[in-house]
Amino acid sequence: MTDHDGMASGPDFRDDQTMQDRVLPLRGIHNFRDYGGYAARGGRLRRGVLWRSGQHCDASPEDLDVVHELGLGTVFDLRGDSERAANPCLRHQDFAGEVLFHPGETASEHGRAVHEEAARGVVTAEDARKAMLRLYEQLAYREVLVGTFRLYLKTLATRDAPSLLHCLAGKDRTGVAAAIVHSVLGVHHDDIVADYLLTNTAGDAEARIAAGARHVRSGFGRSMDDAAVRVLMGVEAAFLDRAFKSMTERHGSVEGYARDMLGLTPEMLAGLEARLVA
Fold first, then answer.
1. What is the residue range of 212's domain?
2. InterPro entries this protein is in (predicted)?
3. 57 is a catalytic site residue
4. Residue 8 lies in a domain
5. CATH code at 196?
6. Pairing mode of beta strands 98-100, 74-77
7. For residues 55 and 28, what is the distance between their CA atoms, to the nearest angstrom?
C-alpha cells in the first residue's frame, strides 16, 4: 500500500523472524543479506536481486558456492583502493560478473574502513557515538564514495541481473547506499531503518564484532573500552538519521541528494522502478 506521495504507507516485514530470513548464514562473509522485498512506490521490491554484505576476503569455498548460486551480475565495492589491496575479495572460480568502484580512497585513514577511521581518539561508548555521528554527517559527500554511488544507481537502473553491494563490514557505506535506493523507490522510512539496523543481529554478529575489535584496537591503541567497540562495530538509527538530515538540509530531501549529487534523472528512476519493483 502507498500513500498519496507515493511512499509506502506503513512499515512492512518488521517481525524478527521475517527479518532474519533475509540473512544468508555464511561462515566467512559477515552481514550477507537480501535488502529487497519491502513495500515500495507502485509495488514491492523484488527479492533475490538486491544483496548486501561485508567483504569477502575470508570467504570459505562453501560460502563462494552459495554466493555463486545467486547469479550476481555486478558487485559494487565501496571500499577504497588500499582496502582492496590489503584485503582482496575471494570470488568463485566461475564468477563472470563485473566489479565496479570509483578509484581512490573512501576513508581518510589510508587502508582503513570509515568506522575504523572514526575510532581515532575514542575511549568510551559516548566518544564512539559522537564520532560515528560526525562521520555520518559527511559520509555521503566523500568524492570517491559519491563516484561509486553514481555507478551504483546508474547500473541498477540499466542491468537486470542480481547485484551485491559491500564495503568492509557492510554497515556504514553499504548501509547509506542501500538506504538511498530504498528512499528513492518509496520504501517507508521505518522499513529503511529496520533494514539498516539488521546489521546488529545478522548472522554471527559476535564474530563480526570480535573481528572489528582487532582492527580498531590495533590501529588506535587498547584504551578503548568494550562498549565503545560495540558502538563502532554496530549501527544506530541516529547514525542513519544524521546522514539523511545532512542530505535534506543541503538538497531538500534524500531524493534531492540523489538528483543533485548522484545524477539521478527521471529516466534512471523509471529504470530502477522497472527492474526492482514488482
1. 16-276
2. Prot-tyrosine_phosphatase-like, Tyr/Ser_Pase_IphP-type, Tyr_Pase_AS
3. no
4. no
5. 3.90.190.10
6. parallel
7. 9
